[in-house]
Amino acid sequence: MITPDLLETIRSKFAHVDNCPFQGPRVFFENAGGALTLKSAVETSAKFAAIPDNQGRANPAAQALMDIIAEAKAAAMDWFGVDHGQVFVGESGTELLFRLIRTAVTGTEGGVLLGSTVEHPASRSAMVHWAKKLGRDYRLVPHDDAQGLVTAEAYAEAVTPDTKVATILHTSPVTGMGMDLPAITKAIRAVAPECFIIVDGIQHASHGLVDLTAADVDGYVVSPYKVFSRHGYGVAWVSDRLTELGPEQLLGGPEANWEFGTRDTGAYATFRDVVDYFDWLGAEVSDADSRRGRIEAAGAAIKAHEKTLTDAMLNGTGNLKGLTEMAGVHIVGGADNPAREGLVCFWSDDVAAADIVEALNKEGIRTHVRKADHYSGNILDPLGQGAAVRVSMCHYNSETEVARFLSVMAGILDR
Fold first, then answer.
1. DSSP assignment, residue 210?
2. Residue of 150, 254, 132, 136 lying closest to 196 (CA atoms)
3. Spatial CB neighbours of 224, under 8 Å, sequence gap ≥ 6
4. Mean per-residue pLDDT for 359-384?
5. How many CB atoms within 10 Å of residue 145?
6. Looking at the chain, which terminus has fewer C-beta neighbours within 10 angstroms, N or C?
7. 255, 249 contact by CB (below 8 A)
8. CA distances (Å), origin 133, targets 129, 138, 202
9. Contact 120, 376 (CB under 8 A)
10. What is the pLDDT of residue 208?
11. What integer is the mean pLDDT of 351-368?
């Protein structure tokens, strides 16, 4: 669906797509650490950083800022695929996960708090913190080490009627595997229909579609710097029922309000740039006649293109061997895994992960080493690995870049 000509147009919309301002020419396969930034988001950031006016004042600039925020929120609702609840920005994705989980846990009493071992420490840490503070029962659903994900069946076995709050990781930034979000939420609600469900969507956001109507959750959080915008803020969607629990608010301030202080118009506007990009891409690959329809089409095109890239990396391209054909290489989550979203994580029996990453970087190929620390130990420790190489791609990457990676890898492993 993404043709070579369209790919060139896509790449032209991103800053530093093939050249690092510090290193020079390079292939960017470190998208899970932060995706490339849309040039439009860079321009929008500069534009709004220069505006001195605040919202809520009796002047044209203030009203214009309020209108821009309202339009951005409406666009974000289309991107999330939902027509109720509200969207707001915060300090970061991690901060927003902590805040939503805090509201859910402190707003309920007794019962079980449920998470999974595949989760990023952002959600797990928040659940642990409040479980200890309030003496709540926090339980973890075990993930499948071989697949690099947690299944709906595993949640179904663990959930109990008194489960009050559950967290779900949509996609793992270590294994690259996406969870079956609608199936997991269905399994939870079949047993505990009133459970508050909070989702970490940070890794998933750049790799396809978000559909919160199908997901049936109460909170969903993304970090815009991982979905083509900039650092410095996070975006959350919350359900009306989560809001009814009563998040912290200023005394005498607006009711049902999640926002503190003066909002960053530039944050909302740069997330609107992200939605506009999905809208544009959807129009390039479909005849959809609504913004949501085009967003869905863009999500499908992104998923298809990234599968082409990961298949080439795993199985080879041209006359180059794929990772699965290289002696001593092991793929986290298995090579033939339909849950994979634009990411391949692996280790070698012969060359240390850190040495592979260093060697790739010297050849202008940006990857990342995941260590068995507080970020990745939950995945790597059960596999008996102290570290692994993470190669993370997005839809603006090309098969030519994958070929370059494989060529260099062959040389690294042959040393």
1. -
2. 136
3. 230, 233, 234, 235, 267, 270, 271, 274
4. 95
5. 18
6. C
7. yes
8. 6, 12, 26
9. no
10. 84
11. 98
Q: Which residues contact 409 (CB under 8 A, 6 or more apart)?
A: 323, 326, 356, 360
Q: Which residues pair with 149 in a beta bridge?
A: 144
Q: Identify which of 78, 396, 397, 69 has the alpha carbon closest to the alpha carbon of residue 210.
A: 78
Which one-letter amino acid corresponds to residue 338? P
Q: Rounded distance, CA 143 to CA 163, Å?
A: 19
> Measured between alpha carbons, how far is 130 from 85 in angstroms, rounded to an integer?
24
**Phi, psi angles (nearest 5°) of residue 307:** -65, -40
% the chain with pLDDT above 90: 93
Alpha-carbon span 365 to 369, nearest angstrom:
13
What are the DSSP calls for 123-191, one per residue? HHHHHHHHHHHHT-EEEEEPPBTTTTB--HHHHHHH--TTEEEEEEESB-TTT-BBP-HHHHHHHHHHH
- In angstroms, the CA 191 to CA 187 distance is 7
pLDDT digits (tens, 9 = 90+) for 187-243: 999 999 999 999 999 999 999 899 999 999 999 999 999 999 999 999 999 999 999
* Amino acid identity at 221: V
Instruction: Collect all residues with Cβ–Cβ distance below 8 Å to 328 and sequence separation of at least 6.
Output: 348, 349, 350, 413
Question: For residues 273 and 187, what is the distance between their CA atoms, to the nearest angstrom?
Answer: 35
User: How would DSSP label each residue in 48-116?
Assistant: HHT----TTSSSHHHHHHHHHHHHHHHHHHHHHT-SSSEEEEES-HHHHHHHHHHHHHHTS-SSEEEEE
Give me 26's structure tokens: 């390079």
Amino acid at 353: A
